[in-house]
Amino acid sequence: MTPGTPRSASERPPVTRTQWLTLLLATLAWLLDGFDGSMFALINGPIMADVLADGTTAPEAGQIALYGGIAVSLYLFGWAVGSIVLGSLADYLGRVRILVAGVVVFSVFSGLTALSTEFWHVAVMRLLAGIGSGVAYPVGATLIAEVWNNRYKARAISVMASGYAAGYFLASVVYWLIGDLGWRVSMLSTLAPVVLVLAIVPFVKEPQVWRDVREARRHGADDTSRDRGRDRLTIVQLFRPDLRRTTVLAAVISTGALVAFWSITTWVPQMVRGLDAVQALGTAEVTSQVALATAALNLGGFLGYMSWGSIADAIGRKWAFTLSMSCMWLGSLALFPWSSSFGLYLVLLPVIGFGVFGAFSGCAVWFPELFPAAVRATALSFTNGLGRMLTCGGPLFASAMAVSWFGGSLQLAVMAIASVGLVAFIGIIALPETRPRRTAAAPAADT
């Protein structure tokens, strides 16, 4: 081979050290996010029972559900704000820098939740933790999309996205091991893994495509803007004529996936606690059953996350998304509206998890392919953040609906809220298919 002759795809090294380290960093950041969210969901009930108690009277189940929903909704609202504001900064300050800052913020404030003695303490800590948490998903997905070879990009992003399910699964294991020590010890466990992220950061560089865009901005030559607004905010550029429709439709998909995700994952532990067979058990046995059911949900979620990229490469992004949303809704329909046994929960929760977690992976794979590099982090952050802003009331609505409309049945309320998630099909149908054609040529350069 003569110098300057391009090598075929089969001759190129498939994965570099930089790509592996970047994937590890983004996956760990998203894993920590999932670990925190799952741990709080697992101990939401005990936390509310503790901080709402007046010393003589224990709070009622409806009160625990209501205030627990408020705490989760505040977390999601903070997540939405952090995603839009901090995520947008990643297009200016760098993907790695913003990603790590977010991890530190949400880990610290999650750990500080363990010191809460009143509900407002919990509420403030969850809001602040949510602000930091909002950057892990959109910025991590953007980072992987820009660093990884296009040939493996979808699968690499799916691996990163699976970190969230792995974090949920890890939280189930940790809760099973230390849950009997009390919710404060469980919440403090969210502080430990952040050390791993900080140890990897020095070895991860910003993507070259982002550095090129930064230099173009510095010289006033950002050619991604087709009008005179090259100095405008990237979030404004999302609504220029050639991107407006894509931005709106991506936000619709994100909203549908998120409302289903948070309504289901937030309340599965509490729904399991409410089963007749579980209520008859002692405290230690209840902890084990809740951990087992959550692990079943997260195992399905892990498989959904990991396989989404490969499925999407095989059948296309649109059909893969259709599969995810169908598993979520049909599995929920078969389980939640009925007086299901604990055994049926263990059978169907993996199916639901496969769908509801897989859709998260889908957004991370599909959306970076729809937006140019100069606004990519902002696009993922905005569509994800807006979706969270619109759905942050989902857990609260589910708890309120259970009390007001469904005779205290969280199962029926969650089913109703999760059904709203089918709105995602509007975007799934309308957005273009971006699955790359399989050729022997080298992957195209990023734009």
Name the CATH class: Mainly Alpha
Strand content: under 5%
Beta strands, count: 0
| SSE ordering | HHHHHHHHHHHHHHHHHHH
Annotation field: number of helices: 19
- How big is the Rg? 22 Å
CATH architectural type: Up-down Bundle
The N- and C-terminal alpha carbons lie at a distance of: 28 Å
Low-confidence stretches: 1-11, 222-231, 439-447
The name of the CATH superfamily reads: MFS general substrate transporter like domains
Main sheet record? none
- Look up the CATH topology: Growth Hormone, Chain: A
Query: Structural class, please?
Result: mainly alpha
Number of domains: 1
Please bin the fraction of helical residues: over 70%
The outline comes out as globular
The average pLDDT is 82
Short overview:
The protein is mostly helical and 447 residues long. The chain has a single domain, classed as Growth Hormone, Chain: A (Up-down Bundle). It contains 19 helices and no strands.
Topology:
Layout: H1 17-51, H2 61-93, H3 95-112, H4 119-133, H5 136-147, H6 153-178, H7 183-188, H8 194-200, H9 208-218, H10 234-237, H11 241-273, H12 276-279, H13 283-315, H14 317-335, H15 342-366, H16 376-391, H17 394-404, H18 410-420, H19 424-430
Helix pairs in contact: 1-2, 1-3, 1-5, 1-6, 1-8, 1-11, 2-3, 2-4, 2-16, 2-17, 3-4, 3-5, 5-6, 5-16, 6-13, 6-15, 11-13, 11-15, 11-16, 11-18, 11-19, 13-14, 13-15, 14-15, 14-19, 17-18
